[in-house]
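Weekly structure sync, notes
Attendees: PL, DS, HV (note-taker this week)

Item 1: Diguanylate cyclase
DS walked through the input record. Source organism listed as Janthinobacterium kumbetense. Sequence as pasted into the shared doc:
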Amino acid sequence: MTTWRKWLRRHVPASLKARMSVVVFLLVLGAVASLALATLAVAERGMRDVTGRQQYVSLSSAAVFIDEELDAKRNVLRAMADSLAAGGAHDGASLQRFLAAQTVLSKEFYSAGVVGIDGVVLASVSPFKPQAGLNVKGRPYFEQTLATRRSVISAPLNGSISGMPIVVVTQPVFDAQGGVRYVLAASVNLRQPDFLGRLGALKPGPGGYLYIMTSAGVIVEHPDKSRIMQHIEAHGPISIPTRRAMQGFEGWLTGTTSQGVDALFAYHRIASTDWILASVYPMSDAFAPLHAIRSKILLAAVLLAALAGLAGWRVVLRLLQPLARLRHQVHEIRRHRLGIDVLQIERRDEIGDLSRDFYSLVAEREIAEAQTRGSERRLKLLTDHVPVVIVYIDREHRYQFINATFEKWFGRSQRESLMQSIRDVLGEEAYQLREAYLRRAFAGEEVEYEFTIGGEGEAGPRAFQTSYVPDVGESGAVEGVYGLIHEITKTKAVHTALQSAAATDTLTGIANRRRFDEQLAQSMQRTRAARAPMALAYLDIDRFKAINDSLGHKAGDEVLKEFAARLVRSVRASDLVARLAGDEFVIILEGVNGAAEVRQVGAKIIDAIRQPFALASGPLPVTTSIGIAIFREGALTPAQLLDLADQALYAAKGQGRDGVALLEAAP
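Item 1 (cont.): predicted structure, written out as tokens:
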């Protein structure tokens, strides 16, 4: 679309007079050409129907002619059969003399012979030397003649002696009792010039042609004699009309030949053989007169449109003279060379109305500009001193307004950024972050999102919140988007600190019960999805009450903090260590390989805790008992898994404390 507009700007004159003349030219050209082409299209459709019907009627006549030709050949054999039955010739020599006496055979057939009912050829005449002992028993045309006791025309086949493509016409010879005594068989050479006589004279047009094929697609007759006896698909895929004809269709169709030529196709069945007579008539031949007329009509349309454009140009030139004068006056006023009093306000036509409206517009604009300049000065003073970035973005995602805070926060020049795209000002990565939100805003939705930019030195990352508010015009369309950007770095820091405090045990600094409950549910869900086992370890400090009673709560708190620290050091960074209450601790171990690995982790923790705790009162030996529940899959709830780990802990204590016990959750 952009390339087309550029071409129009380069080649179409800019003046209104020239454009109106071009429009008149194009309208006349389009109207005349459309009418002419529509008329020709209707004529072509009508001509196609008439031509198609003519082709089918001509083909029907040709099919009757072919039937008559084939019947004539049958009648020749029928007359010979009657003569042979009445003549009493029975030995090979007399049969040979009988055939030699039939002069009509050489005119109608390529070769002929007398065949006994056992299939042995008793006598024959042909251009080739007879083959001794030739037997045709088993051949379809011979067996069919004996079975039906009627004349048969064979399918196309290759002659066993001549090697030529032929069809065989048969006629049974009956004895006095009505039984078949001989079979007369005569062949027709399909490659002799137009074996059906005048068929070539019926071809449609200089580029059209007729051909004959069997219902199975084997070509019987064709202008290209090399294609005889070949399948119709031997030279590539066949056309759709031809395929329909092989399926039983008779009539005419339009389509495309295997060579890509648009043509009229007609098909008719030959009754005596069930062969298909077909004609192909190229459209270029059929509609050549119409195509010649079309170019002449289009040339006439161009000439008529050119004359109309020239006449329109002269009329437009005269009508637009007052408008040209007004244009010159407005041009001079804009450059402050003339005052607005020179306008043609005394005229009583459209030019006068335009002059008076322009006069009023200029006067009102001067007043409005003075008021606007004051408002803009106050607005700029206000927007440049608020601690919020304010921008206005047009539909091409360009900045049309930026306040001074934008330059202070993001280090982009306010003056250089105006009328520049977001991509050019902030870079591709920043634009990709904003693009989806901008599209939603231009769709009429108020949008809020947050983003972070890296700070330098001690400043660290800075967080911002952006609000996009659509500017909806009077037409209801979004004309632009207001953007308001607030810095929320301190607010985010406070929020993060509060979240951390809410999920952290105040004494030990590890996760608390709330964080543990959230993490356990998520871990079990991931375990089910990944089908990788996890483990939940439940621990407490052996005889912790005795430590509190003997050393006091302060020493007990020191033990709890050191205990938590040793647990964290004993497991992976991805494992969650949490304190439930008192001296009860839990560890979530995701992605473990099985019970052996879990036991190793438990043994590592046992060894880490056995090292004496350094307290103010001196070294203190401490031990722990660990119950571990292994979870793989199933509908177990977090509470049930925790209860299973608690049962394992009791089992560990029952074994004498300072040890590990494992239980595996049932699937």
